[in-house]
Amino acid sequence: MGSRLSSVARLTAAAAAAGVVAAAIALPAVGGTGAMFVSASEDLGIKPEDLKEPPLAEKTTVLDAKGNPIAQFYEEYRETITLDQVAPIMKTAIISIEDFRFYEHGAIDIEGTIRALAKNFTSGGIAQGGSSITQQYVKQVLLNSATTKEEQAAALEASYARKLRELRYAMAVEEKYTKDQILEKYLNIAYFGAHANGIEAAAKRFFGVKASELNLVQAATLAGAVQDPNATDPNLGKKQRAKLLSRRNVVLDRMAELKKITPEEAAEAKKKPLGYKGTPLPGGCEASPYPYFCMYVRNEILSNSDFGKTAKARSQYLNRGGLTIQTTLDPKMQKAAEKAIKKHVFASDNPVASEALVQPGTGQIKAMAASRKYGNSKRKKEMSYNVVADAVHGGGVGFQAGSTFKTFTLLTALEEGMKINDGFSVGSGYRAPYYSTFKNCKGQPIGDPSHTVTNDEGGGGFKSLQTGTWGSVNTFFMKLEEHVGLCDTIKTAKSLGIKRSDGLPLTEFETFTLGTNEMDPVTVANAYAAIGARGKYCAPMAITKITDRNGKVTNFKPKCKQALDPEVADAAANILSGVFTKGTMRGVGGIGRPAAGKTGTTDAQATAWFAGFTPDLAGAVSIGDPRGAQDYKLNNVTIGGRYYASVFGASIPGPIWKDTMIAALKGIPATDFTPINSSRFGGCGTGCQPVERSSEPEGDDDTDGRLEDADVADFG
């Protein structure tokens, strides 16, 4: 306390010598006339005031399932390090130019402050700062913790009141920490320009090296940048770089003057060019090798109340929290999806293919890929939204899922007691017999007897659950949905996580089974994954663990429920397996292990899908034109360098799925499906008749009734 009082006394005496009244020091009011009187006993800082030091904003790092970094998020690009991770020459440079008596004085640099007071008094304002490194640290803390424009202005205002307030805080800081600790905190909080906060980020941004690797020229440059980082920001242009170069040379001269370096060393260093590299800032999904998955993770945190009660809290948690986020992405499976898509669809094509892979039994998203890069360049045909996911996770409106929805009607029929050979005789066209045939889940009749769903190229006759599914016969599934109930079918779909990509309620029309709702690959893949897990539905999952800046670990487990009777799922898998051997994927073939799936094509080939699964992995592939699927249909198009008169589910999505699964599951032992309970689902019940099963596929009559197998010769 004695030394502090002595310092204040010396400051007061010096101020008096400069023409200031000592008992009640009168200082010019900044920005106005008259004087501001400050009590020496209360406002010169003889009583330290504790400084609140909120955690610094630190970057968040996202890792894949193997622990490899794949993305970074930050509000301020900063990497906090310890003082021993800073090159000694950097410490010398910053102390030389900012506060060369740093290790000698207390909170107040008496000589510097006296000099500044005298200069400011004669100039009528704040002409010199005279701030110690401790005071500068205090200023940065106040600025960084400001949450309003008023608080930010108060932290920066040119006034004696602010300077005196900083002195009180600085005294408390000096009592609380050692000089080395203060210097470490200052170097981590200081802004150097070019969006680099803290010495580690600045070293990487300016010169592409760590702070521990900085040389004399680089250290002098960064030491010079902190005085006015906006004016010397090298990222802004030649004028700012010239100012920074000049400032660097001032630092070198000062270091020589203080005998920290020799005059010869200073002269040699001043001959060097600035050397600014402008290393690209890491972070952001556009910079990630897996941008669509990155967007999913980012939006999962920003939209999920588990990570903060308010949107602002979640944003700060992600962008300022210094988190390490472990995710579910499997780099091998991601590579398999990317390679398969690239083989069949070019980035320059107007239609876009996208694919998601999900693990049955956990809901873990293993891959998210698309044929186009993520970005905002229309010239390069980049995607500005997450085409693989729903709107909540950065996606758009999605694409109609077509006949992939017939699976939900099939599941409902099995759940309600139908056997695999049960079925109906159907014609080539279907009309609801009367208005009340179909009712939505509010009990409202919505059947339209005036609308005919057709199988334009045949497909009539008796169809069972098996043959109707293998051929994807529209009229059969309309009749089946009529039999089991529209609302029950919708409930089955919802139990498997089906929801519209745009976030709106599912449309509940009689054509629900034909896939008229817009979907995204993650949602569809996850629904099919539940069948592969014997009816166990798990919500889509992208994050497995978060470690905060203090090392606290939060683990996340799958959120699952038994959505289907396991035996119902087994029976559905048994039927859907036949799609590869007797149905619409026969021309494409299987993947060399037990697999099941369903093709899907929407009305007049607006979009095309394939969704399939094994007990180990599920995937969904969609293709459509983001300019507007209904206006730009997949007819008479060239995709991946190949001409297609019409694109169906087995034309492009099916082969992409096949190539992906073979590569993604390589080295993973094959798992068999659980055999169907023949006593429960085998044979015939009511509404069943023996039929001779053809080895030929029946075709995929989707919402337009055209047969997918008609194009088998083109893509087989």
UniProtKB/TrEMBL annotation:
Domain called Glycosyl transferase family: residue spans: 67-255
Catalysis: reaction(s): [GlcNAc-(1->4)-Mur2Ac(oyl-L-Ala-gamma-D-Glu-L-Lys-D-Ala-D-Ala)](n)-di-trans,octa-cis-undecaprenyl diphosphate + beta-D-GlcNAc-(1->4)-Mur2Ac(oyl-L-Ala-gamma-D-Glu-L-Lys-D-Ala-D-Ala)-di-trans,octa-cis-undecaprenyl diphosphate = [GlcNAc-(1->4)-Mur2Ac(oyl-L-Ala-gamma-D-Glu-L-Lys-D-Ala-D-Ala)](n+1)-di-trans,octa-cis-undecaprenyl diphosphate + di-trans,octa-cis-undecaprenyl diphosphate + H(+); Preferential cleavage: (Ac)2-L-Lys-D-Ala-|-D-Ala. Also transpeptidation of peptidyl-alanyl moieties that are N-acyl substituents of D-alanine
Penicillin-binding protein transpeptidase domain ranges (all copies): 357-627
Region (Disordered): 684-716
InterPro entries in UniProt: Beta-lactam/transpept-like, Glyco_trans_51, Glycosyltr_51/Transpeptidase, Lysozyme-like_dom_sf, PBP_transglycosylase, PCN-bd_Tpept
Record keywords, A-Z: Carboxypeptidase, Glycosyltransferase, Hydrolase, Multifunctional enzyme, Protease, Transferase
One Pfam family from the record: Transpeptidase
Protein name listed in UniProt: Penicillin-binding protein
